Inverse folding.
């Protein structure tokens, strides 16, 4: 005889108890799930300085330059003493940061202002990965990774642009301040362009009738030391030729304020969602033209003035985060694309007025080279909600930010995605105090390589940066003064093999 459940019959005490337990568990799981989904993913802000050296901030030993905002950030976060950029020049370093791939794999070097985009649309980039994880992404400041497909017409929408490789919003300088075109692009279009005065740009021949620094040095407010002798914009001659578009030309002394405001606006406009901001400043790169409030403010000339201006920009970002109650759950990173250079083509008094300031600290070398001064850079990370203040001497190349943020946001990298980036999230968060990788590889602009493993660093003769192998024990000789290659021949060959294997292997 088939029995049916009758709701009018008494329910057994055991059944009632089991039902209560099940409901209680279901309720607990639901509360836990809601709590889990209520935890907001951290915002991420990368502030990338241009040409800042290891000794340029107060927290890294500078005495004649004041950087209170950066110094305070270091006190609240982790300050690294052994971090490095992937390359000693701008474009390769930025390429590696955003793609997680060594720039030499694609022969990416310093680009002219009219170069085609170096990152192919469809490539997984750091911003496109974070987009997939629910982030709103913004790029503000110096770009210098190419635009369009070559022979760019700046009078139309420029595509591909940062907006085509993962950024929801962009406000950029196309290349660098010393290269034409000297205009801003916002979401792929030149800002303030008069269609009746079209822009023309060339890096091969003169266009238009604008005077050049070579032919009219009397018109310059900043004299030249080398190159930079083409079209004059705002009293400063640049690399490359440009004519037209005068209503859109920037003023160098306003540059920091303009891009900082755009970065602040991006944060304010997206405060209610997880956001990623790539804020790439220009201040320390030539031409160095600080605003009136920072002119003469440091004790070591114009280069010190623009460092202090950069610190102001950092302060504006930090104060904005604080005012919006975003400070606790925002990761802020301050670092540089490569090491310093003092005279980089303009006679701006930077060399004469250093007043004892050591831009690279005790490190040997500068921008463009493979010595530590070219790639060991300041690196500070803050996330008050999670990171305990401290210092770290663990090697950290910032090409590893890609894989680290993938781990943090639970993105599973596949195949050749970010192929040269390695997960160092525990190191970033100050939880791991031992090296998490076997080697660190760096390059110069020509693709010459150097490799570091443990305390040792090899700059091989085939890097074309040296006349013979150079081997240094960085623990005992951080200034790279004693070449140990002759005494450590087996170690030289062991390090050389690492480089050969990396170059031969197209997957990490």
């Amino acid at each position: 005889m088939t029995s049916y459940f009758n709701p009018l019959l008494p329910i057994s005490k055991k059944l009632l108890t089991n039902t209560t337990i099940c409901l209680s568990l279901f309720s607990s799981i639901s509360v836990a799930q809601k709590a889990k989904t209520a935890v907001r993913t951290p915002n991420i802000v990368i502030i990338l300085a241009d040409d800042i050296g290891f000794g340029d901030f107060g927290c890294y030993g500078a005495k004649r330059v004041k950087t209170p905002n950066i110094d305070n950030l270091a006190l609240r976060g982790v300050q690294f003493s052994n971090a490095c950029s992937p390359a000693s020049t701008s474009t390769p370093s930025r390429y590696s940061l955003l793609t997680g791939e060594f720039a030499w794999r694609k022969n990416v070097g310093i680009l002219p202002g009219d170069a085609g985009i170096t990152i192919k649309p469809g490539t997984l980039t750091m911003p496109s990965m974070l987009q997939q994880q629910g982030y709103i992404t913004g790029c503000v400041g110096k770009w210098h990774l190419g635009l369009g497909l070559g022979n760019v017409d700046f009078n139309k929408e420029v595509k591909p642009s940062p907006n085509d490789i993962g950024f929801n919003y962009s406000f950029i300088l196309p290349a660098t301040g010393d290269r034409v075109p000297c205009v801003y692009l916002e979401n792929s279009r030149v800002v303030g362009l008069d269609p009746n005065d079209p822009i023309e740009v060339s890096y091969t021949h003169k266009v238009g009738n604008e005077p050049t620094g070579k032919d009219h040095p009397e018109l310059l407010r900043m004299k030249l030391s080398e190159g930079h002798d083409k079209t004059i914009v705002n009293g400063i001659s640049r690399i490359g030729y440009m004519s037209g578009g005068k209503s859109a030309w920037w003023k160098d002394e306003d540059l920091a304020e303009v891009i900082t405001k755009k970065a602040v606006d991006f944060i304010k406009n997206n405060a209610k969602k997880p956001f990623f901001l790539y804020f790439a400043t220009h201040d320390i790169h030539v031409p160095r033209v600080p605003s009136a409030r920072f002119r003469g403010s440091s004790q070591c000339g114009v280069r010190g003035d623009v460092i202090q201006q950069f610190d102001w920009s950092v302060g504006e970002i930090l104060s904005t985060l604080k005012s919006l109650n975003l400070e606790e759950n925002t990761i802020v990173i301050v670092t540089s694309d490569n090491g310093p250079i003092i005279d980089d083509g303009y006679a701006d008094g930077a060399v004469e007025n250093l007043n004892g300031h050591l831009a690279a600290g005790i490190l040997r070398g500068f921008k463009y080279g493979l010595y530590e001064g070219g790639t060991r850079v300041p690196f500070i990370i803050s996330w008050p909600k999670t990171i305990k203040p401290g210092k770290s001497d663990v090697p950290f190349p910032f090409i590893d930010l890609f894989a680290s943020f993938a781990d943090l946001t639970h993105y599973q990298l596949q195949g050749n995605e970010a192929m040269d980036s390695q997960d160092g999230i525990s190191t970033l968060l100050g939880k791991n105090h031992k090296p998490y990788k076997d080697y660190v590889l760096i390059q110069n602009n020509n693709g010459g390589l150097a490799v570091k493993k443990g305390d040792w660093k090899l700059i091989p003769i085939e890097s074309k940066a040296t006349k013979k192998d150079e081997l240094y024990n960085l623990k005992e000789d951080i200034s790279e003064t004693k070449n140990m290659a002759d005494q450590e021949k087996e170690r030289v060959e062991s390090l050389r093999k690492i480089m050969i294997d990396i170059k031969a292997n197209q997957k990490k």
Observations:
- Residues 39 and 122 are 30 Å apart (CA to CA).
- The domain at 40-189+252-432 is CATH 3.40.720.10 (Alkaline Phosphatase, subunit A).
- Residues 1-38 have pLDDT under 50 and may be disordered.
- DSSP finds ten helices and 20 strands in the chain.
